[in-house]
Amino acid sequence: MVSAPRPTRRTMLKAAGGLTVAAGLGAGTILATSLAANAADDGFGLHITDRNESDPRMWYYRFQTAEISWAPGVNVLLPSDYHTSGRTYPVLYLLHGGNGDFIEFDHHHIRELTADKPLIVVMPDGGKAGWYSNPVSSNSGPHNWESFHLNQLVPWVDANFRTYSEFAGRAVAGFSMGGFGALKYTAKYYGHFSSISAHSGPPSLRRDAGLVVHWANVSSAAVDLAGGTIYGAPAWDEKRVSADNPMENLERYRGKRIFLVAGTSPSPDPFDYANETQVLAGQREFKAALDKANIPYTAHEDPGGHMIREDRLAEDLEGIVAHLKKA
């Protein structure tokens, strides 16, 4: 296979037009022998330590960054005609779920689902329990996923690929923890994403005495932060919780495309039941609040538990392409 040409570094002016935005659920598979690593600083605090651009569509990168204590991976899935069209494309940042990584959506046919779509899909690592956040504390080095995605990765993508680096050209979606990340990034960084999708993602941090906050703290402490936490323990950083909580930031969803999916019949497995029961209740609370505020959305409640529903992902992709600025 002939290697596809390496993306040319675009102007700093274009990058400045989009400076802080972020990302989604992530996926892709490393297909061939990795090309020579490039250790040069690209201007955004990122150093490419590994890359593979041999596949015509799925390009893989691994970065060294001061924001993360290890080298996170990112897959960039290009449109089928990217190398011949000369067109500029909208971008979807697709965020993986808890205990997942940047290849998660390759297991759900993301290549096939986007084969005819005029859309670039960026799928970054977000930590096994990173919660798309900069944690209050860490005993295992930096895990600042929010800063990595918004301050570094998004401008890097805009500088290296033919993208619309603007509100009308960006979407963010995610599954589970990634669905929360998508909801959070959309509200917290108001002018960055015009479409938001949460596939079994929790939109309510404070319901049930803050069960999602507790789960974020416990899971991150156990898996990623060696006892550190996302929101602080035993006392929470209340301002941080409020800033991240979709339920407390409803107006920041106005004028955007919103797509929600939740399962109505989780299995008896305690993990599946606890996750989707909380997701369903939180999404119902969120939808009621959106209704009261006259903010439109599309939502589905489907049989089954905590999982990626490929039919809903396909439907969502169609809606994202229809909503975003055209290539």
UniProtKB/TrEMBL annotation:
Annotated keywords: Acyltransferase, Hydrolase, Signal, Transferase
Residues annotated as signal peptide: 1-39
Top EC class, one word: transferase
A Pfam match: Esterase
Family annotation (InterPro entries): AB_hydrolase_fold, Esterase-like, Mycobacterial_A85_antigen, TAT_signal
Domain of life: Bacteria
EC number: 2.3.1.122, 2.3.1.20
Annotated Gene3D superfamilies: alpha/beta hydrolase
Chemical reaction(s) catalysed: an acyl-CoA + a 1,2-diacyl-sn-glycerol = a triacyl-sn-glycerol + CoA; 2 alpha,alpha'-trehalose 6-mycolate = alpha,alpha'-trehalose 6,6'-bismycolate + alpha,alpha-trehalose
Record carries keyword Cell inner membrane: no
Keyword Isomerase attributed: no
A GO molecular-function annotation: hydrolase activity
Family: Belongs to the mycobacterial A85 antigen family.
Protein name: Acyl-CoA:diacylglycerol acyltransferase
